[in-house]
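Reopening: structure tokens for the manganese (II) ion complex, inputs below.
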Amino acid sequence: MALDEEAVEKIIKAGEIGARVRELATSLVKPGASAREVCSRVEEYTLELGAKPAFPCNFSVNEVAAHYTPGLDDDVRLTGVEVVKIDVGVHVDGYIADTAATVDLSGVNGPLLDAARSALEQVVRIMKPNIRVYDIGKAVEAAIKKHGYRPVRNLTGHTIGRWIIHAGTQIPNYPDRTTFHKRLRPGTLVAVEPFATNGRGLVRDGGVVNIYSYTGKRGRYKLSPEEEEVLEYIVENYKTLPFTPRWLLERFDKETITQAIRTLTAKGIIYPYPILVEASKGLVSQFEHTFLILEDRVIVTTCRDCQ
Ligand code: MN
Ligand code: MN
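Re-run output (same inputs, fresh job):
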């Protein structure tokens, strides 16, 4: 990513807003709260602070590791015994901050949270310009195992581009041999997100899809005027960033949205992100920060206590 002074300023601003939004989100995770209430408030707060959501607020409970956000008709209400991952993304003019934290309402899963939290803290300590991706994975796995848990092997951190949430390089949560020669160069914006579990350490497709993104490929398909209008709205408002059909209710009715999403997905114009569930129904915890790698130092953009 080309990083002039203005870009760095916007990346830092996004990070500060991301941290505040994450803090509000975790404070709202309480018995009786619903994903819809929390996510609506979180997304509204993002706008109040002068940023925009970079993706829908993720509210993933227990064995759901990632990618749940309330849909047009479904919601999750907390009873008070859950492990809740809140993952928020904000952007300032396309410059993204991606950050997550876990709240334990059960009162008995503190150690599971400590595992992922301490893994992320360890990454904050070792992160430096030109660090090997392999060494990050090694540190994450070691911290999680030390607490008696497993990392989720098929969920990774990722580099971030302008308007691009997954910019190409993955940051595995274990020492993956294929990343041995890969280094994080100055000018890289990268999210690191350790996931810890008491299950197998793998996630699978959970079927439900409430998050999509425009693939950038309109193709030559014949769409109905309504489908065309929905697509135009998506491209104009979210570009290629992930969105949720719930957001489209601002402009369209439920039936129009449902039909358009179905067609656009079938034609490969938008891409679905299904919820990801731990393969053995293990509980999952997650913590995440965004790191800006500069020539001579690293800024943890979403961490107020790390600087
Ligand atoms: Mn995230
Ligand atoms: Mn991420």
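The two ends are 22 Å apart (CA to CA). The mean pLDDT is 97. Marking as resolved unless the reporter disagrees.
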